[in-house]
Amino acid sequence: xxxxxxxxxxxxxxxxxxxxxxxxxxxxxxxxxxxxxxxxxxxxxxxxxxxxxxxxxxxxxxxxxxxxxxxxxxxxxxxxxxxxxxxxxxxxxxxxxxxxxxxxxxxxxxxxxxxxxxxxxxxxxxxxxxxxxxxxxxxxxxxxxxxxxxxxxxxxxxxxxxxxxxxxxxxxxxxxxxxxxxxxxxxxxxxxxxxxxxxxxxxxxxxxxxxxxxxxxxxxxxxxxxxxxxxxxxxxxxxxxxxxxxxxxxxxxxxxxxxxxxxxxxxxxxxxxxxxxxxxxxxxxxxxxxxxxxxxxxxxxxxxxxxxxxxxxxxxxxxxxxxxxxxxxxxxxxxxxxxxxxxxxxxxxxxxxxxxxxxxxxxxxxxxxxxxxxxxxxxxxxxxxxxxxxxxxxxxxxxxxxxxxxxxxxxxxxxxxxxxxxxxxxxxxxxxxxxxxxxxxxxxxx
Length: 446
Ligand code: DHB
Known about the structure:
With 446 residues, this protein is of the alpha/beta class.
């Protein structure tokens, strides 16, 4: 099978929304690897504003060859991600592909393997690291075809939400790393590099092998859902400081961000500061915050917050352990399965406390799903820009997760825009105007 892109095979389509009549060229369902494991899934679509094909045309200053390539993934819950197209949803809103085209971006959407997929023989074919290898194969395909496809392959901006945000951060952190090479070779990915320019990550459910302890560091004070899990919660909570301290994180002034054994410390203060910044922004918008008992306002300013009360306001969502369940059953247990085993543990803690005699995933499989392992690895080409958003009422993972990720990136000199937007639950793509403004800004930097 050839991986040479055929730019003569396309359909011209159109979609109207809110007074915008979008006409675009759709190159669809193109295999992005020579030896796909799930041939129906491992295909991509490229959408290009039709206006670009007129002589001298530009949109927002971009042209057919300079337009950034927006690469949203549709992965949720670590399940397979669908190849999507511009779409108006039932609630009347248009998806990010529509908006990105209207803004002048070229858009690439790819089918990606995920948990639960089986081949004809019943083998599981979507476990880690399938999804990140698929994303990389897509990037390689685009770069391999840079002379033939629309847009600037050196301006690929990945975007995703939740598990999709996690893999967006992973794609941005692991460019060209040799760990993934055997998988990419086996699937017949194009011979090209797989780093990207920028990564947009909404509520990334990442750093999975440390997410249980982070969750208890934050939510243990709310108690567990069942009394049997109290001791598990306490044990995990007690493990988190050593992990944070081992990261060697620093704030903007170079001060060490650490935790004491009781979970207090400069890292805790730093997370709290991010929430205070959220409250300040909201107050400055004119919102009345006087009914929130965890916020203290004095002289029209945020004087402080009570972080414990804020956690009680947010409330625990997941039982301990939140990710590597000692009874199995989470999306993550499934992600770390293998061809024959549906669920596995992926932490020593989960294995030790397993109530179902679960097996442990290989160290390498777990390593390859965590961007934290690659940010300071010089063999990985990092994206130059990250944008991370985690809603201030999102409880799917601890706030410590995006804060650690952003801080580690910044400590490596990577420009990272982090915010915890007020009132936002576990969600993504809710601020596309701001996202696109950020994309335009970083693309304009020399
Ligand atoms: C997603 C949400 C979760 O709580 C989780 O553990 C994994 C994935 C998601 O929405 O993608």
